[in-house]
Amino acid sequence: LMSTAHQVKLALLANWPENVERMNDGRRLRLLCMGKELNTSTNLKITLKQMNIPRFQFHPTPVNVSIIPAGIDPSKTRSG
Question: Which pTM does this prediction carry?
Answer without folding.
Answer: 0.76
